[in-house]
Amino acid sequence: MQQEAIQEITQAPTLEALQQVKTKYVGKSGLVTKELGALGKLPPEERRARGAEINVVRQAIDAALQEREGILKRAALDEKLASEAIDVTLPGLPLPAGGLHPITRVYDDLIGIYQRMGYEVVEGPEVEGEHHNFEALNIPWYHPARDLQDTFWLEDGRLLRTHTSNMQIRYMVEHDPPLKMVSRGKVYRYEATDATHESMFHQLEGLVVGEGISMADLKGTIAEMARGLYGPTAQVRFQPSYYPFVEPGADFAVYWNNPRGESKWLELGGCGMVHPNVFRAVDDLREAAGRDRIYEGMTGFAFGLGPERIAMLKYKIPDIRYFYANDPRVIGQFRGEL
Ligand code: PHE
Prior knowledge:
- The chain has 12 helices and 9 strands.
- It is α+β, with helices and mostly antiparallel strands and 338 residues long.
- Strand 7 and strand 8 form a beta hairpin.
Protein backbone atom coordinates (compact mmCIF):
# COMPACT_ATOMS: atom_id res chain seq x y z
CA MET A 1 0.00 0.00 0.00
CA GLN A 2 2.83 2.35 0.88
CA GLN A 3 4.39 2.07 -2.54
CA GLU A 4 1.11 2.63 -4.31
CA ALA A 5 0.30 5.63 -2.15
CA ILE A 6 3.69 7.21 -2.69
CA GLN A 7 3.47 6.71 -6.40
CA GLU A 8 0.04 8.34 -6.52
CA ILE A 9 1.33 11.20 -4.40
CA THR A 10 4.41 11.92 -6.49
CA GLN A 11 2.32 11.77 -9.65
CA ALA A 12 -0.52 14.00 -8.42
CA PRO A 13 -0.54 16.77 -11.07
CA THR A 14 -2.34 19.41 -9.02
CA LEU A 15 -3.06 20.43 -5.44
CA GLU A 16 -6.68 19.28 -5.92
CA ALA A 17 -5.54 15.83 -7.12
CA LEU A 18 -3.13 15.63 -4.19
CA GLN A 19 -5.98 16.42 -1.80
CA GLN A 20 -7.94 13.48 -3.24
CA VAL A 21 -5.01 11.11 -2.72
CA LYS A 22 -4.67 12.42 0.83
CA THR A 23 -8.32 11.71 1.54
CA LYS A 24 -8.04 8.26 -0.03
CA TYR A 25 -5.27 7.17 2.34
CA VAL A 26 -5.29 9.26 5.49
CA GLY A 27 -8.72 10.94 5.39
CA LYS A 28 -11.41 10.11 7.98
CA SER A 29 -12.33 6.92 6.15
CA GLY A 30 -9.05 6.53 4.29
CA LEU A 31 -7.27 3.22 3.81
CA VAL A 32 -4.59 3.87 6.44
CA THR A 33 -7.14 5.24 8.89
CA LYS A 34 -9.27 2.14 8.46
CA GLU A 35 -6.27 -0.09 9.14
CA LEU A 36 -5.62 1.84 12.34
CA GLY A 37 -9.31 1.48 13.28
CA ALA A 38 -9.08 -2.24 12.73
CA LEU A 39 -6.29 -2.54 15.30
CA GLY A 40 -8.86 -2.90 18.08
CA LYS A 41 -10.09 -6.14 16.66
CA LEU A 42 -6.65 -7.75 16.74
CA PRO A 43 -5.55 -9.81 19.67
CA PRO A 44 -3.47 -7.65 22.08
CA GLU A 45 -0.19 -9.46 21.33
CA GLU A 46 -0.38 -8.61 17.60
CA ARG A 47 -1.75 -5.11 18.09
CA ARG A 48 1.53 -3.48 19.07
CA ALA A 49 3.61 -4.76 16.16
CA ARG A 50 0.84 -4.07 13.63
CA GLY A 51 0.30 -0.59 15.04
CA ALA A 52 3.99 0.23 14.69
CA GLU A 53 3.93 -1.07 11.12
CA ILE A 54 0.96 1.07 10.11
CA ASN A 55 2.53 4.13 11.76
CA VAL A 56 5.65 3.72 9.66
CA VAL A 57 3.47 3.62 6.56
CA ARG A 58 1.48 6.62 7.70
CA GLN A 59 4.59 8.65 8.42
CA ALA A 60 6.00 7.82 5.01
CA ILE A 61 2.73 8.86 3.37
CA ASP A 62 2.58 12.11 5.40
CA ALA A 63 6.14 12.96 4.48
CA ALA A 64 5.45 12.29 0.79
CA LEU A 65 2.26 14.37 0.94
CA GLN A 66 4.10 17.28 2.51
CA GLU A 67 6.91 17.19 0.00
CA ARG A 68 4.53 16.99 -2.97
CA GLU A 69 2.40 19.79 -1.59
CA GLY A 70 5.47 21.98 -1.32
CA ILE A 71 6.46 21.28 -4.90
CA LEU A 72 2.94 21.92 -6.27
CA LYS A 73 2.53 25.12 -4.26
CA ARG A 74 5.81 26.52 -5.49
CA ALA A 75 4.86 25.68 -9.06
CA ALA A 76 1.51 27.40 -8.63
CA LEU A 77 3.20 30.49 -7.21
CA ASP A 78 5.73 30.58 -10.05
CA GLU A 79 2.94 30.38 -12.55
CA LYS A 80 1.02 33.19 -10.83
CA LEU A 81 4.10 35.40 -10.69
CA ALA A 82 4.82 34.74 -14.33
CA SER A 83 1.26 35.60 -15.35
CA GLU A 84 1.21 38.80 -13.30
CA ALA A 85 4.67 39.96 -14.28
CA ILE A 86 5.01 43.71 -14.96
CA ASP A 87 7.10 44.75 -17.90
CA VAL A 88 8.87 47.79 -16.53
CA THR A 89 10.31 48.53 -19.94
CA LEU A 90 6.88 49.30 -21.44
CA PRO A 91 6.38 53.02 -22.03
CA GLY A 92 3.98 54.57 -19.49
CA LEU A 93 0.51 55.84 -20.31
CA PRO A 94 0.54 59.50 -21.25
CA LEU A 95 -0.81 61.84 -18.55
CA PRO A 96 -2.24 64.75 -20.50
CA ALA A 97 -1.14 67.96 -18.81
CA GLY A 98 -2.58 71.35 -19.68
CA GLY A 99 -0.67 74.57 -20.07
CA LEU A 100 -1.29 78.28 -20.07
CA HIS A 101 -2.49 79.86 -23.30
CA PRO A 102 0.08 82.19 -24.88
CA ILE A 103 -2.23 85.17 -24.36
CA THR A 104 -2.53 84.31 -20.67
CA ARG A 105 1.25 84.16 -20.42
CA VAL A 106 1.69 87.58 -22.03
CA TYR A 107 -1.03 89.04 -19.78
CA ASP A 108 0.70 87.56 -16.73
CA ASP A 109 3.98 89.21 -17.78
CA LEU A 110 2.33 92.58 -18.41
CA ILE A 111 0.20 92.57 -15.30
CA GLY A 112 3.19 91.52 -13.18
CA ILE A 113 5.06 94.58 -14.46
CA TYR A 114 2.18 96.91 -13.57
CA GLN A 115 1.50 95.30 -10.21
CA ARG A 116 5.12 95.92 -9.26
CA MET A 117 4.47 99.59 -10.10
CA GLY A 118 1.49 99.57 -7.74
CA TYR A 119 -1.39 99.40 -10.23
CA GLU A 120 -4.72 97.90 -9.31
CA VAL A 121 -5.87 95.17 -11.74
CA VAL A 122 -9.56 95.13 -12.72
CA GLU A 123 -11.83 93.58 -15.30
CA GLY A 124 -15.07 94.84 -16.76
CA PRO A 125 -18.09 93.98 -18.89
CA GLU A 126 -17.78 92.96 -22.54
CA VAL A 127 -21.41 93.86 -23.19
CA GLU A 128 -21.44 97.61 -22.81
CA GLY A 129 -23.64 100.62 -23.29
CA GLU A 130 -23.01 103.07 -26.09
CA HIS A 131 -22.36 105.79 -23.53
CA HIS A 132 -19.45 104.04 -21.80
CA ASN A 133 -17.91 102.72 -25.01
CA PHE A 134 -18.22 105.92 -27.08
CA GLU A 135 -20.04 109.01 -25.74
CA ALA A 136 -18.20 109.39 -22.43
CA LEU A 137 -14.92 108.81 -24.24
CA ASN A 138 -15.52 111.92 -26.34
CA ILE A 139 -16.73 109.92 -29.34
CA PRO A 140 -20.21 111.39 -30.15
CA TRP A 141 -22.42 109.57 -32.62
CA TYR A 142 -21.45 111.79 -35.52
CA HIS A 143 -17.75 111.44 -34.79
CA PRO A 144 -15.76 109.87 -37.65
CA ALA A 145 -13.86 107.75 -35.13
CA ARG A 146 -16.92 105.52 -34.88
CA ASP A 147 -16.30 104.42 -38.43
CA LEU A 148 -12.81 103.34 -37.49
CA GLN A 149 -14.19 100.89 -35.00
CA ASP A 150 -16.81 98.70 -36.56
CA THR A 151 -19.13 97.66 -33.85
CA PHE A 152 -21.13 94.55 -33.05
CA TRP A 153 -24.51 95.93 -31.98
CA LEU A 154 -26.93 93.95 -29.84
CA GLU A 155 -30.67 94.09 -30.43
CA ASP A 156 -31.27 95.98 -27.18
CA GLY A 157 -29.06 98.88 -28.32
CA ARG A 158 -26.09 97.73 -26.30
CA LEU A 159 -22.87 96.59 -28.00
CA LEU A 160 -19.80 94.42 -27.62
CA ARG A 161 -17.12 96.78 -26.40
CA THR A 162 -14.72 97.80 -29.15
CA HIS A 163 -11.91 98.58 -26.69
CA THR A 164 -11.14 98.31 -22.97
CA SER A 165 -11.27 102.11 -22.68
CA ASN A 166 -14.81 101.72 -21.30
CA MET A 167 -13.03 100.77 -18.08
CA GLN A 168 -11.50 104.24 -17.82
CA ILE A 169 -15.02 105.57 -17.36
CA ARG A 170 -16.27 102.80 -15.08
CA TYR A 171 -13.20 102.95 -12.85
CA MET A 172 -13.25 106.74 -12.42
CA VAL A 173 -16.96 106.76 -11.59
CA GLU A 174 -16.26 104.31 -8.77
CA HIS A 175 -12.86 105.49 -7.53
CA ASP A 176 -11.46 108.85 -6.44
CA PRO A 177 -8.04 110.05 -7.62
CA PRO A 178 -5.13 109.60 -7.27
CA LEU A 179 -5.35 106.23 -9.01
CA LYS A 180 -3.37 103.72 -11.07
CA MET A 181 -5.21 100.87 -12.71
CA VAL A 182 -4.85 98.35 -15.51
CA SER A 183 -7.76 96.46 -17.01
CA ARG A 184 -7.55 93.33 -19.09
CA GLY A 185 -10.15 91.67 -21.26
CA LYS A 186 -11.68 90.81 -24.60
CA VAL A 187 -12.78 93.36 -27.18
CA TYR A 188 -14.74 92.92 -30.40
CA ARG A 189 -14.65 94.47 -33.85
CA TYR A 190 -16.90 93.69 -36.73
CA GLU A 191 -14.34 93.31 -39.45
CA ALA A 192 -13.00 90.78 -41.92
CA THR A 193 -10.48 88.44 -40.37
CA ASP A 194 -7.02 87.81 -41.76
CA ALA A 195 -3.60 86.88 -40.39
CA THR A 196 -3.44 90.03 -38.25
CA HIS A 197 -7.14 90.81 -37.65
CA GLU A 198 -9.64 88.88 -35.54
CA SER A 199 -13.18 89.90 -34.65
CA MET A 200 -12.32 89.15 -31.03
CA PHE A 201 -8.99 89.99 -29.44
CA HIS A 202 -7.58 91.28 -26.18
CA GLN A 203 -6.41 94.57 -24.76
CA LEU A 204 -4.69 95.86 -21.70
CA GLU A 205 -5.86 99.32 -20.71
CA GLY A 206 -3.95 101.50 -18.29
CA LEU A 207 -5.09 104.65 -16.51
CA VAL A 208 -3.25 106.94 -14.12
CA VAL A 209 -4.89 110.07 -12.70
CA GLY A 210 -3.69 112.52 -10.11
CA GLU A 211 -2.60 116.09 -9.65
CA GLY A 212 0.26 117.05 -11.93
CA ILE A 213 0.48 113.80 -13.87
CA SER A 214 2.32 114.61 -17.09
CA MET A 215 3.32 113.23 -20.47
CA ALA A 216 6.75 112.49 -18.94
CA ASP A 217 5.09 110.09 -16.50
CA LEU A 218 3.39 108.38 -19.42
CA LYS A 219 6.65 107.98 -21.34
CA GLY A 220 8.46 106.70 -18.27
CA THR A 221 5.70 104.16 -17.62
CA ILE A 222 5.71 102.81 -21.16
CA ALA A 223 9.52 102.62 -21.10
CA GLU A 224 9.38 100.71 -17.82
CA MET A 225 6.93 98.27 -19.38
CA ALA A 226 9.19 97.82 -22.43
CA ARG A 227 12.19 97.05 -20.20
CA GLY A 228 10.06 94.62 -18.19
CA LEU A 229 9.08 92.83 -21.39
CA TYR A 230 12.31 92.96 -23.39
CA GLY A 231 15.10 93.68 -20.95
CA PRO A 232 17.09 96.79 -19.93
CA THR A 233 18.16 97.74 -23.46
CA ALA A 234 14.63 98.03 -24.85
CA GLN A 235 13.79 101.46 -26.26
CA VAL A 236 10.44 103.13 -26.84
CA ARG A 237 9.24 105.46 -29.57
CA PHE A 238 6.21 107.76 -29.52
CA GLN A 239 4.55 109.09 -32.66
CA PRO A 240 1.72 111.61 -32.63
CA SER A 241 -1.62 109.96 -33.23
CA TYR A 242 -5.28 110.64 -32.72
CA TYR A 243 -7.74 109.10 -30.29
CA PRO A 244 -10.74 111.26 -29.30
CA PHE A 245 -10.34 110.49 -25.58
CA VAL A 246 -6.75 111.71 -25.28
CA GLU A 247 -5.01 114.99 -26.09
CA PRO A 248 -2.23 114.84 -27.05
CA GLY A 249 -2.41 111.28 -28.32
CA ALA A 250 0.35 108.98 -29.50
CA ASP A 251 1.12 105.53 -30.74
CA PHE A 252 4.02 103.80 -29.09
CA ALA A 253 6.45 101.20 -30.35
CA VAL A 254 9.19 99.21 -28.66
CA TYR A 255 12.59 98.53 -30.21
CA TRP A 256 13.96 95.30 -28.94
CA ASN A 257 16.89 93.03 -29.66
CA ASN A 258 16.12 89.40 -29.19
CA PRO A 259 18.81 86.74 -28.63
CA ARG A 260 18.53 85.59 -32.25
CA GLY A 261 19.83 88.95 -33.37
CA GLU A 262 16.55 90.24 -34.76
CA SER A 263 15.70 93.76 -33.82
CA LYS A 264 12.72 95.77 -34.89
CA TRP A 265 10.20 98.37 -33.92
CA LEU A 266 7.09 96.69 -32.64
CA GLU A 267 3.98 98.89 -32.75
CA LEU A 268 2.30 98.06 -29.47
CA GLY A 269 -0.58 100.44 -28.85
CA GLY A 270 -2.04 103.88 -28.31
CA CYS A 271 -1.75 106.31 -25.44
CA GLY A 272 -2.12 109.93 -24.45
CA MET A 273 -3.20 112.44 -21.85
CA VAL A 274 -6.81 112.00 -20.75
CA HIS A 275 -9.01 114.51 -22.62
CA PRO A 276 -10.80 117.06 -20.38
CA ASN A 277 -14.10 116.02 -21.98
CA VAL A 278 -13.58 112.53 -20.55
CA PHE A 279 -13.12 113.91 -17.04
CA ARG A 280 -16.23 116.03 -17.54
CA ALA A 281 -18.25 113.00 -18.68
CA VAL A 282 -17.05 111.04 -15.64
CA ASP A 283 -18.05 113.86 -13.31
CA ASP A 284 -21.50 113.96 -14.96
CA LEU A 285 -21.93 110.24 -14.30
CA ARG A 286 -20.68 110.65 -10.73
CA GLU A 287 -23.06 113.52 -10.12
CA ALA A 288 -25.96 111.44 -11.44
CA ALA A 289 -24.92 108.68 -9.03
CA GLY A 290 -24.78 111.11 -6.10
CA ARG A 291 -21.00 111.34 -5.98
CA ASP A 292 -18.65 114.34 -5.91
CA ARG A 293 -17.49 115.96 -9.12
CA ILE A 294 -13.84 115.43 -8.47
CA TYR A 295 -12.09 114.95 -11.81
CA GLU A 296 -12.25 118.37 -13.38
CA GLY A 297 -8.84 119.94 -12.95
CA MET A 298 -7.06 116.59 -12.69
CA THR A 299 -4.59 115.31 -15.22
CA GLY A 300 -3.88 111.75 -16.20
CA PHE A 301 -2.71 109.45 -18.90
CA ALA A 302 -4.15 106.34 -20.50
CA PHE A 303 -2.78 103.65 -22.75
CA GLY A 304 -4.08 100.58 -24.50
CA LEU A 305 -2.25 97.69 -26.13
CA GLY A 306 -2.87 94.24 -27.54
CA PRO A 307 -1.22 91.16 -26.06
CA GLU A 308 -1.78 89.27 -29.33
CA ARG A 309 0.92 91.33 -31.05
CA ILE A 310 3.41 90.61 -28.28
CA ALA A 311 2.54 86.90 -28.21
CA MET A 312 2.78 86.51 -32.01
CA LEU A 313 6.30 87.86 -31.94
CA LYS A 314 7.40 86.15 -28.74
CA TYR A 315 6.16 82.71 -29.73
CA LYS A 316 6.56 83.13 -33.50
CA ILE A 317 2.87 82.59 -34.19
CA PRO A 318 2.31 83.77 -37.77
CA ASP A 319 -1.51 84.09 -37.75
CA ILE A 320 -3.69 85.67 -35.05
CA ARG A 321 -6.46 83.18 -35.82
CA TYR A 322 -4.31 80.33 -34.46
CA PHE A 323 -4.85 81.66 -30.93
CA TYR A 324 -8.57 80.87 -30.91
CA ALA A 325 -8.93 77.94 -33.33
CA ASN A 326 -8.24 75.49 -30.46
CA ASP A 327 -6.11 73.41 -32.76
CA PRO A 328 -4.22 70.97 -30.52
CA ARG A 329 -1.23 71.15 -32.85
CA VAL A 330 -0.89 74.81 -31.88
CA ILE A 331 -1.96 74.94 -28.25
CA GLY A 332 -0.27 71.58 -27.57
CA GLN A 333 3.03 73.40 -27.96
CA PHE A 334 2.26 75.36 -24.83
CA ARG A 335 1.70 72.37 -22.59
CA GLY A 336 3.46 71.83 -19.30
CA GLU A 337 5.96 74.64 -18.98
CA LEU A 338 4.15 77.50 -17.31
N1 PHE B 1 -8.68 102.38 -27.12
C1 PHE B 1 -7.66 102.54 -28.11
C2 PHE B 1 -7.81 101.46 -29.17
O1 PHE B 1 -8.54 100.53 -28.97
C3 PHE B 1 -6.28 102.46 -27.51
C4 PHE B 1 -5.99 103.58 -26.56
C5 PHE B 1 -6.20 103.42 -25.20
C6 PHE B 1 -5.48 104.79 -27.05
C7 PHE B 1 -5.95 104.47 -24.34
C8 PHE B 1 -5.21 105.81 -26.18
C9 PHE B 1 -5.42 105.64 -24.85
O2 PHE B 1 -7.19 101.51 -30.22
